[in-house]
Amino acid sequence: MRNFLNNTIFVILCFGFIEARYPDAAGLNGMVVSSNKLATEAGIEVLKNGGNAIDAAITVGFALAVTHPGAGNIGGGGFMVIRFADGRTTSIDFRETAPMLASKDMFLDDDGNVIKGKSWSTSYAVGVPGTVAGFGYVHEKYGSQRWHTLLQPSIQLAKYGHKIDYLNFSLLNSPYYKQYLSRDDVTKAIFYKDKGFKLGENFIQKDLASTLTRIANYGYREFYEGKTSQYIIDCMERTNGLISSVDLKNYRPIERDPIEFYYRDYRVITMPPSSSGGIVLSQILNQLENFNMDTIEFHSYKHIHYISELERRAYADRAEALGDMDFIDIPIETMISDQYAKSKWSEINCCAATPSDEISPIKINYNEKEETTHYSVVDKWGNSVSVTTTVNGWYGSGITVDKAGFLLNNEMDDFSIKPGYPNKYGLIGSWANSIEPNKRMLSSMTPTIVEDREGELFLVVGSPGGSTIITTVAQIISNVIDYNMPLKDAVESPRTHHQWLPDNIYLENKMFNSDVTNKLIDLGHEIDYKRSIGEANCIMYDKINKTLLGVSDSRRNGSAIGY
What is the pTM of this model? Predict the structure, then answer.
């Protein structure tokens, strides 16, 4: 009763309504939360039919490739964090890689200037896709159901169609994406209509259905060594791209030890490089742990000031030190240590913003070596999976593979194409993230799982959103742990973001009052606004009631289903 009263009082004070918002779904046996209802339904059916969380995650991922083509994919890559029911953890890196013909100066002209658009909307922007290999690898090692069976929902959705929902309707009919998707003739034939798509019309993707059928029948290596791989090569020849048959044949996902750390005695399990997410998340939360949050009012100017100051320090280190750990030496243990976090935290001025050009990132000696989608799954045994995949920007490069029906990514833009030059999301990089053949480009994807103080499953968290992914995940975790928010409120609460450069705080959709923003300006902060920050799809385990709670962020039209 005391906890209920405390929660209720908090909600009244911070959100202005009497009762905490309920989760979107609850279940005793399993939960799936994704960016699309049809994909979520496909995943929950796998769980109901005896599949484990890994099986369901594979099905959801392939279904999103059909129903969420702007971000779901088989032409991109991603990351997966797994916590097994017995407490064991692992992570799968199926990030795209640079083709063998790639070079560090490939996006520069003869004078060393960046060629605008070359790293974004041409075939040069395409990294070797990893999604299919990642799903295939994790199925072989940890899946329990037949591979062919897990692909059937996506095949059916592509072959017989699905109704265009509001997100796809608004994106495909927007002037910008109508123009973007009409540049490539193959893409135009599938994703463009002169008079626009109708809300609720049936969208059939026959070539994609054939591709998924081949992968289902012949295994995931068909994508890399079969007819589909030849279609990719044909597309590269048509568009003057760099990916070769050897690139495809040699692609392999990598199983890695997750980044693990404790935040206020909660164990956080998250993604290591080539994702920057885990390290930067640990730096943000490890610095935050030095604050007594009981004394800091939620979303007060002091709260936003402190969060922004520690975010900018973590992102400065990201820019300087992070890249593919198979190519450079990254001082991970130092960067995620409490001691290092305390040294950064001690630099924060309570009464003034620190200009970003005065922040000193970590220094190391190198041995030169926005739009994503996230979903969360928990099964009846307690296995949990957090997955984030991407083609980078909405619809990736805008180039579709002939006769195969899927869009290719534009992930090469996530390399540091020139030190100090921002990518599409405004992120700065160094030579740590420079282009090299077979190298994985740095990412902000942050699939994360949290255990409670007793070592039991607590949260499955993640989000799309480019550079804002990490701060979204950090704020949700803090909202739940520090402010005792119900999961729905933790996810729906307005968010802020600071990424070191550009030197400003982003506030979401002008949802903060003028008193707060004026005080932040008085401290020396520059203020800017974003329509929305992140789109979290999360699960919480309520161990008192032995119930899984699912929340899909209302910032988009996702879906949570439990049983």
Answer: 0.94
